[in-house]
Amino acid sequence: MDTIILGILRDTDSCDYDILKLSSKKGNAELDINDAPDCNAFRKMEKETLITTYWGGENSGARRQYYSITEIGSENYTANVIEWTRLTVY
Fold first, then answer.
1. Which among 2, 34, 71, 90 is most buried, taking Cβ atoms within 10 Å?
2. Whole-model pTM?
3. Torsion sign across C-alpha atoms 28, 31, 57, 69
4. Of 64, 20, 22, nearest to 42 (Cα)?
5. Closest of 16, 6, 20, 8 to residue 72, by C-alpha
6. Residues of the chain under the 50 pLDDT cut
């Protein structure tokens, strides 16, 4: 899950709801993601300094918390993709 979230955040900062919807869309709806475990994933990733958070504006209704990838998160994403590629070659 971490790698999916980091991959999405490499393109743009986003709120958790949009990240979860985009991950399902990119996975052709094959990823069955429910909100509770994923909220824990965001908190864990923030604690590990893979992502940071900030509050967005209130222009479009409720104020939302947005996530952005850190340099450490970007390095972690790259390492995970390399490892996954290496493992799936077999």
1. 2
2. 0.80
3. negative
4. 20
5. 6
6. 36
The residue behind tokens 């790259």 is 78
Length of the chain: 90
Extents of the domains making up the chain:
2-88
Cα–Cα distance for residue pair 87/15, rounded to 1 Å: 31
The half-sphere exposure of 1 on its side-chain side, counting CA atoms within 13 A, is 18
Name residue 54's beta-bridge partners. 66
Tokens linked to 32: 């069955």
CATH 1.10.10.10 assigned to 2-88: yes
Token code pair at residue 14 = 């986003």
Q: Sign of dihedral through CA atoms 51, 53, 59, 62?
A: positive
